[in-house]
Amino acid sequence: MAPRFVIPDTLKDLEDVPDEEERLYAQDVVKLDALSPSEIDELVKGVAFDLADRDLFCVEEQQLFDQTYSLVKGFQFLQPSAKGYFIESLRSNFSVLLLNITTLSSHSASDGPSLQDRISSCRNVLKIYTYFLQTIVFIEEAQPEQPVPRRNNGKEKNSRKKHIPQEWNWEVHCSKIISILATAVETNIKQLYGQSDPEENFLAFVAKGAFSLFEKPSLLKNKETKDALCKIVGACATKYHYTMQSSASILHLIHKYDFLPQHMADAVAQAEAKYNDGSLAVSLIREIGRMSPKDYARDASGAENVGRFLVELADRMPKLMSTNVGILMPHFGGESYKIRSSLVGVFGKLIAKAFKDNDGKSCSSTHRLRSKQAMLDILLERCRDVSAYTRSRVLQTWAELCEEHSVSIGLWNQVSEIAAGRLEDKAAMVRKSALNLLSTLLQYNPFGPQLRTATFEATLEKYKQKLTGMTPPSTSHDNEENDVVVKTEISENEEGEINNDLNGNVAEEHPSPDKNEETEQNCVEDSGPSQVENGVDNDDNTPDVGSLEQTRALVASLEAGVRFAKCMSSTMPVLVQLLASPAATDVEHSIQFLMRCRQFLVDGADSCLRKMLPLVFSQEKAIYEAVEGAFITIYIKKNSMETASNLINITIDASVGDIAALEYIIGILVSKGDIPSGTISALWDFFTFNVNGVSAELSRGALSVLCMAAKSSPKVLSSHLLNIIDIGFGRWAKEDPLLARTACIALQRLSEEDRGSLISRHSRVFNSLKSLLIGQGLTEQSWYSAAEQAINAIYVLHPKPEMFLADIIRRFHASVFGQNETFEQLAPDSENQVDEASLPHCSSSVGVTKLSRFLFIVSHVALKHLVYIESSVRKVRKQKADKQRAAAESQASETDADLSQSSEKATEECNINAELGVSASEDARLDSLAEKAEKEIITGGQNQKFIIGICAPIIAKICKDFALLQKFPRLQASAMLALCKLMVVDPDFCDANLQLLFTVAQNAVSETVRSNCVIALGDLAVRFPNHLEPWTEHMYARLSDPSISVRKNAVLVLSHLILNDMMKVKGYISEMALRLEDEDPRISNLVKLFFHELSKKGSNPIYNLLPDILSRLSCQNLSEETFCNIMQFLIDSIKKDKQMEGLIEKLCHRFSGITDKKQWVDIAYCLSQLTYTEKGFKKLADLFKNYEHALSEDAVIDYFKSISNKAKKFAKPEVKSFVEDFEVKLVKSHEERKELEITAQNAMAHQQKLSGQVEMEKPNSDETSCERKIESQDDEVNKEDIGSSKNTSEESTGGDVSEDVESHESIISEPGDAAASRSTNGESHLENDISPSATKSCRNGKPMKKQSRRNPKLEEPVTKEAGEFPGIRPAEANVVQPGIELPDDNSSISSISHDNIGEIVSNYKPVSDNEQKAETTPLKIDLGDAGIKGLPRRKKAVQLKLPAEESEGSVLDEEKENNTKQIPHTRSSHKARQQKETVTSQTRTLRRR
């Protein structure tokens, strides 16, 4: 009997001499590296021959064992052929051994010792072959790509030498080895161990080898190898009860490798299926359940792998998982969202598969139904999970359940409402999942292929009436209760009879959507309002559904259908918002869902789909493809007439944005050939009224579509030129006012060839255009758009458009002003001024409509002529470039000899031209000509003005006559639009009328006029940026306009200018920041988009603008919520840590020099919103001295504490201690500051108690000095206010101030007839209302004297009365409030007028002793009637009032004269002097405070 073989820990351990005597080990090991290749081959062949020729158990013999061991140990030294030969020998002997093991059961026990020896030998040899084969796998897998080493014979070998390819495929041999090992463990080897499990080290060795091979992804790609490994794992864990160790190994591998969850789930499922034992799966589930949720939160990758494994396990073993899923429930409360998401997926698999028998019938087990209902409830609850990933996974799970038909009709509406609510989720992935779920709900809905609410309600009403007729009278009062019972049964009994009957009955009313596509499409197209009418009118046609209970069930299902249809239609407003989402997934899936809604006839789907058209301009390829695909699906049909009708219907009544989008997409489809020629012919049939029932509106729509197609293919219009003229400008134009405009657009889209033929053959086209401009055939609303396109068409078609249009303007002028009026009579004189009497005369006799049209034509001709000049210059330059290119090509075609000569000549000419600057001079001359031509449009030549230049002063004069424009709003709109167009043309005219434009933009009554002015300012800023630069502040001021339309246009204009680098971002950007909290959500969203795009430019300009925005917003009277929302949004746009650190330093430095406590709080709030790194927090701590004085405020210290709390959450231990020390320092400083403040207040109160209540009068000398001081300070105030603006100081004169008010009264500030009457007396002064030079204003709330002077902001002569401007109060109200520092310039007394002083002196009367003893308010000094410049000096009474009781702080306030008591002018006693010194010291103290 051979010695016993024990599996060693390592291969080399077999060479060690064992302690036991009877133990097999390697005694004579052959070193293969010392043998030659031929000797190694001989050894391999000898071992193979012995294994094949000798006894089955010969491997136990010492010599053969040593040789086999030597070959296994030196396996890497073998040649490929020798490797395969050796492996096949071992494997064949091993397979024979396994066959012998299976035959051992046939031997009887009477064989005695011989059987036991055989069993022992089989067990020994089994371990030997298993060990050697498994070791070969380990060795080969450890070095899979190493070349075959050679024997070292003393010479260095080149390791990069190419080896001769041999027949060797390790994957094949590995698969065979693993298969034989799997067969070995599946064989009944328990009989070798007395019907007990094999020894543990044997199972551990086999299982270890299998698990190590699972780490090789290449091996798992081979299905046979993977199945063999799964068999080994399953047999060891299940058959031989090696469960706990296998579970630990499986979980370790799952945590480590993300490709193993699926393979491990296969292994566990195969073990359960083969051995009918789920102990391995249960063990794994329990191990996962026992793990702490915190461990999964720390190991995100492992948590994801474990979650995937659970989902795969639930998919393969649903029933076993359903009985053990309770172990996993605690992980729903863990922090790992990946585990929660996976558990949601597990529940989805279990609901779909675990609660059905193999035959597909519903399981009747009450326990299973309750488990299923509990899982459904959890899925509904998890829709509100804190993690967006989990919420998205829940919605995906519901979609899978819908596809599996595992959602009952009772839950259908509940799931639909949840999905509709998730459309407004803040996470894009959740919104995407919600859209997919809604699409799935629509596709698999049990209510039918048409979901019009009216249809369902009509059908429901019919069956309700039928149910009322079927109900017995005795039980009629129980109808409501019965309905509730039926609904409850539907929601609870999810697989019962009522549910089945209900689905069947609904299918009768509404065919199932599971039919083929053509049938469904036909049902959708044929269904419509006719069903509702038939259902309401013909109650007798209602089909009979059976018994009373079935009718009740059908009514309940119809009610559910109505609810579902309303739920789908209620999502339309949200879908419109999602179409404008910056996330491409939102837009793409919203379009797909809308297409599904349209298929099922959901209310509002068609109107929402029309709003997707502007998305065709999106830069996202996915969005454009989605829009294009949806457009083709909806509107492009196989029938040409149907396609033409669809395109016409969508064009009619489309907005400007929709028209532009349609033009773009139709042009692309025409170029691609997606719109066939048959559709074009059908469109012409509609336009020429060759189709029955075509109206003028449909004809115009057909021509619009043809114009869109002509933009990419101009030949579309060439076949019907006469029809365009006859129909577009004929009698049909009167029926549809927009038809003439569309015809003009069609004329502009003609090709060059068609334009020439049209001019030569059909000259009446220009007569039609002239009659359109001069005639009165069109309505007032449609004339302007038609006239605009007519002028555009003239500049496109006519060879000399300026001559033709000049004649039209003369004719129009004659019809407007009369035949006797000529341009020479209205021409300006040498000083470029229009006769003042001309305009009133014209306005009294000219119709407003004609005058408005005349102004429009003149201005639009000027603008188009400017464009015409620029296009002509481009044509000249293009022709020049073409000539140069043609000359170069002709030179290149010459012979080689000529080419060399010509090239030398051309080079010489080019050099000469370059030296002389010929080409540059030609370009400069061309630019000079273009500039001169542009200037002549309005300014004219040297001696005369041209026709538009003559009209320009008239337009400016009309715009300045505010009284006239106020009477005629339409004339004001036309005149201002004309003025803006002329300003775009000429810079001098623009500069001369900028002040007028800004005045109208601010003060015009019509918001349309103000909006037009704002838009025009944007164009002017692009064309003349230097002229508009001084007016930047006034452009930003339009953001505060009371009109929503004006504010929106101002936001759009400024956003365009700033983002395109046409306007510098200045400090006025705070006005734009205020619009973040605009009352209109669209404006707020536009501003958010602006700042979002601004943050992407360069190094984020918001970083540099934020401190200035903070200062400006802090000075404004904003609510705390508004300020916080604005600053939080702006701070969130800063992402870089370096910029955050820079902001920390900037904001901390802003604490220095600020005494306003409100600004302290604002800065501290902004600091608390920043993101702090370790470096940033240390910088905050280093700047402690800058904000130490502000820590006395409770709000400030709270914000700083929140900063330290945030820093402690993610700080390292050493940094955390630093943060805690900083927090202690903050608290200590706060307490010290608080104590100092309380001490100061107590000292003041105590001093006031000691002072007593005394009244006294200052001596005359003090009074005189006070008057002189006030007069000098008053002079300084006047100099500061008046001298800060150069324009103001130059315009102001030395006369009486009141005369300046009367002479510069503004017409625009007077409403109604007052302004009108004033305008008749003389020229208005609108041009002086606003000036670009902004001076100091009354923003700080300083009261001003009652005098007339130029408004430093608007250059408008104003009279400052008490309380006229914001922040300015009457003289008696100019009181310094508690906590506010007194101004040093005594400006609080500068608003007292002559009348106030006289009234104070005349009303003076002494105060009685009783009044003198009464308690008064804290310290009040009445300086209300101090000396004013230019007034006779009088004796002033200074009233000093001291508090009788302790107060928190002293306050300076003005009092009226009748509340004071004058002290007689007598010599002061010692007591009076003492009181005076006390009051003086208190006054100085208050001033220092």
Give a description of the structure:
This protein is mainly alpha-helical. It has 70 helices and 4 strands. Strands 1-2 form a two-stranded antiparallel sheet. Strand 1 (1348-1350) and strand 2 form a beta hairpin.
Question: What is the number of strand segments?
Answer: 4
Biggest sheet, open or closed, and with what strands and sense? Answer: 2 strands, antiparallel
| Overall residue-averaged pLDDT value | 75
Portion in helices? 55-70%
Q: Globular, elongated, flat, extended or rod-shaped: what is the shape?
A: elongated
The largest beta-sheet arranges its strands as 1-2
Radius of gyration, in Å, reads 48 Å
Q: Gap between N and C termini, in Å? A: 111 Å
Number of helices: 70
Tell me the β content. Answer: under 5%
Contiguous runs where pLDDT drops below 50 for at least 5 residues: 146-166, 474-540, 820-844, 1253-1329, 1331-1472
| Classification by helices and strands | mainly alpha
How would you summarize what this structure contains?
This protein is mostly helical.
Which labels suit this protein?
1489 residues, mainly alpha, two-stranded antiparallel sheet, 70 helices
Topology of helices and strands:
Blueprint: H1 37-53, H2 62-73, H3 80-103, H4 113-142, H5 170-186, H6 200-214, H7 217-220, H8 223-239, H9 243-256, H10 261-275, H11 279-290, H12 293-298, H13 300-316, H14 318-324, H15 337-353, H16 366-381, H17 388-403, H18 409-421, H19 428-443, H20 453-470, H21 479-492, H22 497-509, H23 517-526, H24 529-537, H25 548-570, H26 572-579, H27 584-599, H28 605-610, H29 621-635, H30 640-651, H31 656-672, H32 677-687, H33 696-710, H34 721-728, H35 732-735, H36 738-748, H37 752-761, H38 764-774, H39 780-797, H40 801-817, H41 823-826, H42 838-845, H43 848-892, H44 896-916, H45 918-936, H46 947-960, H47 962-967, H48 969-985, H49 987-1003, H50 1007-1023, H51 1025-1028, H52 1032-1037, H53 1044-1059, H54 1069-1074, H55 1081-1094, H56 1102-1114, H57 1120-1132, H58 1137-1149, H59 1157-1169, H60 1174-1182, H61 1184-1187, H62 1194-1209, H63 1213-1251, H64 1260-1283, H65 1286-1291, H66 1297-1303, H67 1312-1321, E1 1348-1350, E2 1357-1359, H68 1394-1402, H69 1409-1413, E3 1420-1421, E4 1440-1441, H70 1470-1488
Antiparallel strand pairs: 1-2, 3-4
Helix pairs in contact: 1-2, 1-3, 3-4, 3-5, 4-5, 4-6, 5-8, 6-8, 6-9, 8-9, 8-10, 9-11, 9-13, 10-13, 13-14, 13-15, 15-16, 15-17, 17-19, 18-19, 18-25, 19-27, 20-24, 20-25, 22-25, 26-27, 27-29, 30-32, 30-33, 31-33, 32-33, 33-36, 34-36, 36-39, 38-39, 39-40, 39-43, 40-43, 43-45, 43-46, ...
